[in-house]
Structure formats: structure tokens, C-alpha cells
Design goal:
By secondary structure, the protein is an alpha/beta fold. It has helices spanning about 20-25, 40-50, 60, 80-90, 105-115, 130-140, 175, 180-195, 290-300, 310-325; strands at about 5-10, 30-35, 55, 70, 95, 120, 145-155, 200-210, 220-225, 230-235, 245-255, 255-260, 270, 275-280. Helices cover about 35% and strands about 25% of the residues. It has an 8-stranded mixed sheet with strand order 8-9-10-7-11-12-13-14.
Length: about 325
């Protein structure tokens, strides 16, 4: 096999620019089918993106003999269901983040794919973006010395749609998302930290709903310890004033520190002895394409993806531990 032919389940907004075109542009990859429950929207997507087939039934896409692998881009509530169906059909899966609503669902997905001998990948695409590869290279180089601790802050104002209680986005409906914006966005940050420092072995957290805009947590605080010995603290709040917006992770070592943004296109800063060096960020047009290329390479026997079901499940475990008091 010299090409992986993909089918997308859930061709919504995230697939328009971030991911969908990446399956068409990656080397050794082709997008041959898309599915959405609304057939007209699936047909429209296929026409606009030059995709040969469209479906309004996920089972039909999964069992299409021309589809080699499945990309699941639905809300998290459906990730486990479709992963199990794809695995039963003998097809590898690339699933959106967070991997599932909770760690238990992640385990079912991993077990199903292992039993079917198919690979499972998770769309934590920041593991392949140049700006975060630069951060990892700086950490690994030892330029700031042994890392002692890190601080994560993500404080954002509420979105307009958060104030429209009759039409809440699925991202703040627990039955669909498994949590709120912490699960949606904080998962990216926790996964990056796993990529930089390895698994988190101990974590404690507090989660509350302070503003009452929606039925999930809007303020989260946590502290955690990695197997590597690094200690971290995090703070996520999604109801602050615009003037208090901040997106910053600070990695502090024995000799200096590194500062970077997880979601904004800001330079990576390296500070040693009061001297600051700036590294400008680089973001590809289709942000998932670099990871998609690594996934395709692994499926073709040409490399290894840095984001797998095992790594994705670790992030879900951490979030479960942080949120378990709030979810009771």
C-alpha cells in the first residue's frame, strides 16, 4: 500500500481548515469520503472540498471498501462508539481531542483497537507544530538546566454564545463534551506537558462553576507531579474580563525559564540571567497536517506518530482526576 484513503465522520467546522484539507495534502494520503447526519451538509462539504463520496450514515462510511482509515471529528460523546465500530471493521482510527468524555471510554477504545490489531491515534496536533517543537528542543537541550517546576495559566473572557443559555454550544454540555472549556482547551496544554516531560503520576484539582453561564466547570485549579520529577501548577478560568486575558505557560529550570502561549501566535521566550531571546512562532495553514502526515507515515510503515491512544488516554486520566470532585 502506498496511499491511505480516509473517511471523515462528522465533517463540521474543525474539518474545514484545521484538518480536512490536511488529509488531502499530506503525502501518501487521500480523502475519499465524508459523513454528516445532515446529508445536505455532507453533500455540500464534499462538493466544496472535492471529496468523491458523502454519506449521512456512519456505518455506511465505515464499511465502504474504498475507505482504509477513519477520522472521527464528532463531539466526544460519540468518539468511543465510532472507534469501536471502526475497529470491528478492521480500520485504524484518528480521533479528535479530547480522546473521549472520560478515561474509562478511552480504555474501551484502546482495548477494541488492540483486539482488532488496528492503530489508534488522537488529534493532539500541537505535538507536531514547529513552535512547540522549539519549546521541546529548548527543554531537551538543557539550556535552562534541570526543570524544577512549571506554571500554566489560561484565563479567558466568556464567549458570546456562552450567554445564550437556550442555544449552548456542545462544548459546554457535559453529556456531549464530558466537561467544559477546560476539557476542550486545557486538554491541549496537558497533552503538551505530557509530550515535554512524560506522564503525570500524581494530580489534585479543584473545579467549580462560578458564573453559572452553563452546566459545567468554568474555573479549575490543579497541581501535579510528573514521573520525571517536575512539579506543575495550573489555573484555568473562562469568565474573566478581557483585560485579564492570559495564555501563558512558564517552564522554570535551574538556570533560566521558557515562556510560551498555547493558543495565541506569540513568540517563545527564553530568559537566562535577565537576557531574553525570542523565537517567532510558525503555524501551518492546516494545523493538523503535520500530525496527519506522521499518522499516515506510521500506517505506511514509514515512521511513528507522537500522539497515540495511549498518550491521549493519559491526558483524559489527568482531567478525570482534576474534575472528579466536581463531577460527583
Amino acid at each position: 500500500m502506498n496511499q491511505i484513503k480516509w473517511g471523515i465522520i462528522g465533517c463540521g467546522d474543525v474539518t474545514e481548515v484545521k484538518s480536512g484539507p490536511g488529509f488531502q495534502k499530506a503525502s501518501g494520503s487521500a480523502l475519499v469520503a465524508v459523513m454528516r447526519r445532515n446529508g445536505e451538509k455532507a453533500r455540500d462539504y464534499a462538493a466544496r472540498h472535492g471529496v468523491p463520496k458523502w454519506y449521512d450514515d456512519a456505518d455506511k462510511l465505515i464499511h465502504d471498501p474504498e475507505v482504509d482509515a477513519i477520522y472521527i471529528a464528532t463531539p466526544p460523546a460519540f468518539h468511543a462508539e465510532y472507534t469501536l465500530k471502526a475497529a470491528n471493521a478492521g480500520k485504524p482510527v484518528y480521533v479528535e481531542k479530547p480522546m473521549a468524555r472520560n478515561y474509562a471510554e478511552c480504555q474501551k477504545m484502546i482495548q477494541a483497537c488492540q483486539a482488532a490489531n488496528v492503530r489508534l491515534f488522537v488529534a493532539y496536533y500541537r505535538r507536531c507544530l514547529p513552535v512547540f517543537l522549539k519549546v521541546k528542543a529548548l527543554v531537551d537541550s538543557g539550556v535552562i538546566g534541570p526543570v524544577r517546576c512549571l506554571n500554566v495559566k489560561l484565563h479567558l473572557p466568556p464567549r458570546k454564545e456562552d450567554l445564550q443559555t437556550d442555544t449552548l454550544t456542545w462544548r459546554v454540555q457535559p453529556e456531549l463534551a464530558g466537561g467544559g472549556y477546560f476539557v476542550d482547551m486545557g486538554s491541549h496544554q496537558l497533552d503538551l506537558l505530557d509530550y515535554f516531560f512524560g506522564p503525570i503520576m500524581e494530580v489534585k484539582g479543584i473545579a467549580v462553576n462560578q458564573a453559572g453561564f452553563y452546566p459545567v466547570e468554568d474555573m479549575v485549579a490543579a497541581n501535579f507531579r510528573f514521573e520525571s520529577g517536575v512539579v506543575g501548577v495550573g489555573s484555568w478560568c473562562f469568565t474573566v474580563a478581557e483585560s485579564n486575558r492570559i495564555d501563558q505557560t512558564e517552564i522554570i529550570g535551574e538556570k533560566g525559564k521558557i515562556l510560551f502561549s498555547s493558543f495565541e501566535m506569540k513568540p517563545v521566550l527564553l530568559e537566562i540571567d535577565g537576557q531574553i531571546q525570542r523565537f517567532e512562532p510558525s503555524w501551518p495553514q492546516h494545523v493538523q497536517q503535520p500530525l496527519i502526515q506522521q499518522v499516515v507515515n506510521e500506517l505506511l510503515g514509514l515512521g511513528k506518530s507522537p500522539s497515540t491512544g495511549e498518550t491521549g488516554a493519559r491526558t483524559s486520566w489527568v482531567m478525570d482526576e482534576i474534575l472528579k470532585g466536581y463531577r460527583k
